[in-house]
Amino acid sequence: MLISKKEIEVRYAETDQMGVVYHANYLVWMELGRTQLIKDLGFSYAEMEQDGIISPVIDIQASYKKPLRYGDYATIHTWIESYDGFRVVYGYKILTPNQEEALLGTSSHVCVKKDNFKPIIIRKKYPEWHEAYENAKKQGE
């Protein structure tokens, strides 16, 4: 499978009173990883939104393993965990500077029309995305 990588530097504002990254910021980083994967596949969420289509999160799972702190560099690994032409589940592994797991997680998404939230079938509306997602899942098998 294709695994996208994005490195980020932990900013002071992302930490809590204990000096570690506040848990909700990992969700933002998951989004950064997901957006990077989409770019690596040659697409853009912004273009999809211009078509009146959005991709809300319908489920999210996160397991926190090791803390990250201000000034650390984290690496977000993102891949397509599963895809059926309608629903996409992205997988995430966020690593510490020592390559230890800071977070393991998934997020599930569907695509909907922005004006009424009516679901669309990705493989029909965006056949090029469908093909790229299928290929990304198979890559490296």
Automatic annotation (TrEMBL):
Key words, A-Z: Hydrolase
UniProt EC number: 3.1.2.28
GO MF annotation: an example: 1,4-dihydroxy-2-naphthoyl-CoA thioesterase activity
Record has Hydrolase as a keyword: yes
One Pfam family it belongs to: 4HBT_2
Gene3D superfamilies attached to this UniProt entry: Hotdog Thioesterase
PANTHER family, A to Z: 4-HYDROXYBENZOYL-COA THIOESTERASE FAMILY MEMBER (PTHR31793), NOVEL THIOESTERASE SUPERFAMILY DOMAIN AND SAPOSIN A-TYPE DOMAIN CONTAINING PROTEIN (0610012H03RIK) (PTHR31793:SF27)
Family, similarity comment: Belongs to the 4-hydroxybenzoyl-CoA thioesterase family.
UniProt-recorded name of the protein: 1,4-dihydroxy-2-naphthoyl-CoA hydrolase
Organism: Sutcliffiella rhizosphaerae
